[in-house]
Every structure is written in C-alpha cells, then in structure tokens.
Design brief:
Blueprint lengths: L1 H18 L9 H12 L4 H15 L5 H14 L7 H25 L7 H10 L1 H31 L1
Helix pairs in contact: 1-3, 2-4, 2-5, 2-7, 3-4, 4-5, 5-6, 5-7
Length: about 160
C-alpha cells in the first residue's frame, strides 16, 4: 500500500509541475528522477517516467521525446552513484541537470532546426543556455526541498 501511495504522489507532483504555469524547465522532474531511486528504490523511476508519458499525451508529443524520456531514465539509473551523502546528492543533481541539457539539446540539434553543421550544433546549445539556468536552479531548489523533507521525516522517526 505504501508503494502505491508514493507512486501516486510522485505522479501527482510531476503531472502538476508540468501542467501548471511555470517558467520554462523549472520543474522538480530531474530532482525526482535522481532522488526517487535513491530513497525509495529503483522501481520508482517508473513513476517519474509514467507521469512524463501521461503529461506528454496531453501537452503533446514532440520530436525529442526519446531524448527527454531517455535522459530521465538514465539519471534514475545513475542516481546510485550519488546516494552516499548530502554533498554527493547535490553534486549529482547538478550533474543530472547538465546531463539532461546535453542529451535533450542534442536531440533538438538532430531535428535540423539549426542545420546539420558544427555551427548549428553550437548555436543549438547556445540558444538553450537560458533553459539550462532554469534547469539547474530548479533542480537544486527541489533537491534541497527533498533533502529537508527527508531530514524532517528522519528526525520524526528518531524522536518517536
């Protein structure tokens, strides 16, 4: 029953964060992709992915779909390397943001929007820098919120 509650909670958070108005790329998606497998188990990455798929059904599918979904899945798989302590998890959140940026914008480049040249590749990444800023800031903020909630929950259990 607890698994189902967490699963539904994750679905609700990601869905709400994608459909409610927000600045571009300012969502808890990457933080949840990193933290869910660390604290809840690898199976919870599927809750994040499912919510991503469900919201894309309503928001609309796009040409870079496999790059966005794939990067979220890979972040979840790689999260085990950043689980040791607070500093490693925050470092992992930063790296995950940059990884997401690199992978998804390579997908944008492959759409041909900027041309299939080295200049087009550079322009693609350059034009996406404002999105990178929002991604890193939101991932760090949501990671800190998750860290605080985990610490509060841990202290509550210790005091019982």
């Amino acid at each position: 029953m607890t698994y189902l509650k967490f699963f539904i909670g994750i679905l609700a958070i990601v869905i709400a964060s994608r459909v409610l108005p927000h600045p571009p790329n300012f969502t808890p998606l990457i933080a949840l992709s990193l933290y869910c497998p660390i604290f809840l188990g690898a199976g919870y990455i599927y809750a994040v992915l499912l919510s991503f798929v469900l919201t894309d059904i309503f928001i609309g599918f796009h040409q870079t779909l496999l790059f966005t979904w794939g990067s979220i899945f890979i972040i979840g798989i790689l999260s085990r390397y950043f689980c040791r302590d607070f500093k490693k998890r925050i470092l992992g959140a930063s790296i995950a943001s940059i990884f997401f940026f690199i992978i998804t914008n390579f997908g944008v480049y492959l759409t041909g929007m900027y041309g299939y040249s080295f200049d087009g590749l550079i322009k693609c990444y350059f034009m996406a820098i404002p999105f990178l800023t929002n991604t890193i800031v939101s991932t760090i903020i949501f990671s800190l919120v998750i860290e605080i909630l985990i610490k509060i929950n841990y202290q509550r259990k210790v005091l019982k």
